[in-house]
């Protein structure tokens, strides 16, 4: 266990974000979860023992206010996990509406940028050699028809990861990403129940033969944010059961 750190996790109301929050809490860290869904966020925070702050990460003013509040009350953020993202909007290139694509980019790219920028500024001001971990996707490197809006946004997250890593290295701030394949969140379990044709089709693409559990993702995030990864920055770690090999 490391010394207790202040960890800020976006998109923490459920799914992967909740799993990541639970992993950091188990590590002895103080966890603050943020999400646009205030009701779900409050329930999750109460159940896992985190602090909750509702915010739209695509709102630059709101983000700055939240980071200012967090640092004033809890001290500098030691670890930022940019997990918030939109996955539910799909459409082929010739069909996806401009409005839907803009919505994806606002959350997945602009939101990640805004939170990273605000936290990095505070880390630099406080002299904190912190860690930032972004949640990307193997879709950034392996296209799936109908998911290009989401996947192109995650390619931008990978690029933002490298951009932040090279510029923040002089301040001792490390920036990495995890890139999962499909993850069995509660929502995905409903949409792809075990034995369904869609689930079977995805599993057939994965050499290890199964979709990832949330518990496959969270430990990698904790690792990249911890002392064992002290000389790792600018990487995007694929967690896909070998799907990119197929």
| Secondary-structure content class | alpha/beta
Mean pLDDT: 96
As a whole number of angstroms, the C-alpha radius of gyration is 17 Å
Q: Any low-confidence stretches, pLDDT <50, length ≥5? A: none
Beta strand count: 7
CATH topology category name: Rossmann fold
How much strand? Answer: 5-15%
Topology:
Blueprint: E1 6-10, H1 15-26, E2 30-35, H2 38-48, E3 51-54, H3 60-74, E4 79-82, H4 98-126, E5 131-135, H5 148-168, E6 174-180, H6 186-191, H7 197-203, H8 214-224, E7 236-239
Parallel strand pairs: 1-2, 1-4, 2-3, 4-5, 5-6, 6-7
Helix pairs in contact: 1-8, 3-4, 4-5
Pfam families: adh_short_C2 (PF13561)
InterPro entries: KR_dom, NAD(P)-bd_dom_sf, SDR_fam
Protein name: SDR family NAD(P)-dependent oxidoreductase
Task: Give a short synopsis of this structure.
The protein is of the alpha/beta class.
Task: Give an account of the 3D structure.
- The protein has about 250 residues and is of the alpha/beta class.
- It has one domain: Rossmann fold (3-Layer(aba) Sandwich).
- Helix content is about 45%, strand content about 15%.
- It has a seven-stranded parallel β-sheet with strand order 3-2-1-4-5-6-7, sandwiched between helices.
- β2, α2 and β3 form a beta-alpha-beta unit.
- The termini are far apart.
- It is an enzyme of class 1 (oxidoreductase).
- Belongs to the short-chain dehydrogenases/reductases (SDR) family.
- GO terms for molecular function: oxidoreductase activity.
- This is SDR family NAD(P)-dependent oxidoreductase.
- Keywords: NAD, Oxidoreductase.
């Amino acid at each position: 266990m490391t010394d207790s750190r202040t960890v800020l996790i976006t998109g923490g109301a459920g799914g992967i974000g909740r799993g990541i929050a639970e992993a950091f809490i188990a590590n002895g860290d103080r966890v603050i979860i943020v999400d646009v869904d205030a009701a779900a966020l409050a329930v999750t925070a109460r159940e896992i023992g985190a602090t909750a702050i509702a915010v739209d990460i695509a709102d630059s003013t709101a983000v700055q206010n939240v980071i200012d509040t967090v640092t004033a009350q809890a001290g500098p953020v030691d670890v930022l996990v940019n997990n918030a993202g939109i996955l539910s909007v799909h459409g082929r290139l010739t069909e996806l509406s401009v409005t839907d694509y803009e919505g994806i980019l606002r959350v997945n790219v602009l939101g990640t940028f805004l939170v990273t920028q605000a936290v990095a500024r505070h880390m630099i001001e406080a002299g904190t050699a912190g860690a930032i971990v972004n949640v990307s996707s193997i879709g950034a490197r392996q296209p799936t028809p109908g998911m290009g809006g989401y996947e192109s946004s995650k390619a931008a997250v990978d690029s933002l990861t490298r951009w932040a890593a090279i510029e923040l290295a002089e301040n001792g701030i490390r920036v990495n990403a995890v890139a999962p394949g499909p993850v069995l969140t509660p929502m995905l379990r409903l949409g792809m129940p075990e034995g369904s044709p869609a689930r079977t089709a995805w599993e057939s693409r994965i050499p290890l033969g199964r979709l990832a559990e949330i518990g496959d993702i969270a430990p990698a995030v904790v690792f990249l944010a911890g002392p064992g990864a002290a000389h790792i920055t600018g990487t995007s770690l694929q967690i896909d059961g070998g799907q990119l090999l197929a």
